[in-house]
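From the methods appendix. Each design record in this collection lists the tokenized structure first, followed by the designed amino acid sequence. Records were kept in a plain field format so they could be parsed without special tools. The example shown here is representative of the layout used throughout.

RECORD:
FOLD TOKENS (195 positions):
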């Protein structure tokens, strides 16, 4: 299946002259099928809000041209850069997805010839981490060795695991203290299944 067939070639003429000439008819049907599939695929990958702003088009090529008219490439570049600079990790858990998203945003800048360097991206990622990662950031900054994004990803996932374990220990300790009535609270002991 050649989905870009409708983008590469112009729409062939449809011959309905009643002649038994199958070649042009097959060519037209192939182009029509590929155009329909290309149009559906493009529309499926575009968010609903953007889809509504694009006028109805008969061909995939016309649809892509209408999309180009709607968006200024430099506006897109600016919004990608802004998101890359202001994105923050919002909770412990999900640091892998957070770093992958930042790496994806940085790679989108390649098409605008504005790809950040590896070390700049590492610093952006470190700056986007929560306050719980401060000791980790200090440790990175005191080392002479600079990490690549892949190494930072691995280290952040390890740090996240350590942070999650410490949070779980704190929660367990608080439950034990509350169950013992320490602090003047008058609460009934927790059931074994809750501890």
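DESIGN:
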């Amino acid at each position: 299946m050649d989905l870009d067939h409708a983008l590469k070639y112009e729409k062939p003429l449809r011959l309905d002259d009643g002649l038994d000439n199958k070649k042009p008819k097959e060519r037209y049907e192939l182009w029509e099928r590929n155009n329909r599939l290309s149009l559906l695929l493009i529309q499926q990958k575009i968010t609903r809000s953007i889809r509504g702003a694009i006028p109805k088009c008969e061909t995939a090529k016309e649809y892509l041209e209408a999309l180009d008219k709607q968006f200024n490439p430099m506006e897109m570049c600016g919004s990608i850069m802004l998101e890359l600079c202001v994105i923050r990790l919002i909770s412990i858990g999900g640091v892998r997805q957070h770093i992958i998203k930042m790496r994806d945003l940085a790679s989108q800048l390649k098409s605008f010839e504005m790809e950040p360097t590896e070390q700049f991206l590492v610093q952006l990622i470190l700056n986007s981490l929560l306050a719980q990662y401060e000791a980790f950031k200090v440790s990175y900054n005191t080392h002479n060795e600079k990490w690549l994004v892949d190494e930072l990803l691995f280290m952040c996932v390890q740090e996240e695991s350590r942070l999650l374990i410490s949070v779980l220990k704190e929660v367990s300790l608080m439950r034990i203290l509350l169950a013992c009535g320490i602090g003047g609270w008058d609460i009934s002991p927790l059931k074994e299944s809750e501890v």
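APPENDIX NOTE: The chain has a mean pLDDT of 83.
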